[in-house]
């Protein structure tokens, strides 16, 4: 579904006076507002192909209708999101759910929607119909060398698909682990996994990165083979410069200090990127910023400080992607909300009086440091985020326009009520 630019323009015209009033006030409050707006324009957050449909739990799945039935329709949906917010300019594919039949046609369709291909994602947490072996007891860690080889070969196949599409990174998430004490030899599992990852790493093109995700629990509950940032860091340190740790905000034990993890990984040049979501209990995969907006801001505060210290390009040097599961929301509305929350947190972090904060830290002025951070967090930067969209030809209020245009109704009319966007 292509969104006509005149509909966005008409939507913006109706809101322009109100937006201008809010923007003028915000400009008077934030000294570096123009620089922030430009950084917001440049910043892009990839949309994963699997997040375009309804998720579910182990108890059930309640489809919302109109989900994309093919890779082509997934690209169209991300293109629609990008037209609405001009901040979702990339799609991350999951193999084998999204294997292109014709690379040139798929790339042409993505270009039509001003999209590029972000990291490609492998799948060894699920048995495929044509697989000779099962991953029931793990993939890259498996005690069976033939099963490990099958998993390695799959990842290399994913790299080949990514090369054809113009991607430059591979994301590896392992469901490997154990459910019961004694089931697994931890050291052997680590060594098997490292050996497998080394084979995959050797297949990477020179300009590619390998992102190794971690997760504290699930689907295995006694142990996971890449359980936390330290274990991921241990692997990627041994693999080489092209290997980085990927942080998923929902993949931590309760109350983990994610902002400190981010700071240290940046310091060690081993932070690869993010999967944004929110959680209360575990890997809930809720809308980014829905539960813990202050934590999201604090994470971005460390990101901005760390990237600036290293002279990094905010928009290009790390991987930014959403990873959410939409169980009761319209997936496209949820993704629009997540992108908005991420952009707000980023803008707030950019508005921090960095010079004053450094001075407060040097003087051990704890109260002043807290005041500086909370002042930035409590400042309403939504007008800056909206202005970045306006200057890019996107909608001032993306969710509002999405609803005004009855997009979900249109998609249901085109695709039907009972469709599925993922292989789950």
Secondary structure topology:
Layout: H1 5-29, H2 33-42, E1 47-48, H3 71-85, E2 90-92, H4 103-112, E3 116-117, E4 120-121, H5 145-165, E5 169-172, E6 177-178, H6 186-202, E7 209-213, E8 223-224, H7 229-239, E9 243-248, H8 258-267, E10 271-276, H9 293-310, E11 319-322, H10 331-350, H11 354-362, H12 366-378, H13 382-391, H14 398-404, H15 407-415
Parallel strand pairs: 1-2, 2-3, 4-5, 5-7, 7-9, 9-10, 10-11
Antiparallel strand pairs: 6-8
Helix pairs in contact: 1-13, 2-10, 2-13, 3-4, 3-10, 5-6, 8-9, 9-10, 11-12
Explain how this protein is built.
By secondary structure, this protein is α/β, with parallel strands linked by helices. The chain has one domain (5-415): Divalent-metal-dependent TIM barrel enzymes (TIM Barrel, Alpha-Beta Barrel), CATH 3.20.20.150. Helices cover 48% and strands 9% of the residues. The protein is built from 15 helices and 11 strands. It has helices at residues 5-29, 33-42, 71-85, 103-112, 145-165, 186-202, 229-239, 258-267, 293-310, 331-350, 354-362, 366-378, 382-391, 398-404, 407-415, and strands at 47-48, 90-92, 116-117, 120-121, 169-172, 177-178, 209-213, 223-224, 243-248, 271-276, 319-322. A 6-stranded parallel beta sheet has the order 4-5-7-9-10-11. Strands 1-2-3 form a 3-stranded parallel beta sheet, covered by helices on one side. Helix 8 packs parallel to helix 9 (293-310). It is globular. The two termini are 25 Å apart.
Radius of gyration: 22 Å
What share of residues is helical? Answer: 40-55%
Low-confidence stretches: none
Structural class estimated from helices and strands: alpha/beta
Domain Xylose isomerase-like TIM barrel: 100-285
GO molecular function, one term: isomerase activity
Protein name: Sugar isomerase
Organism: Flavobacterium agrisoli
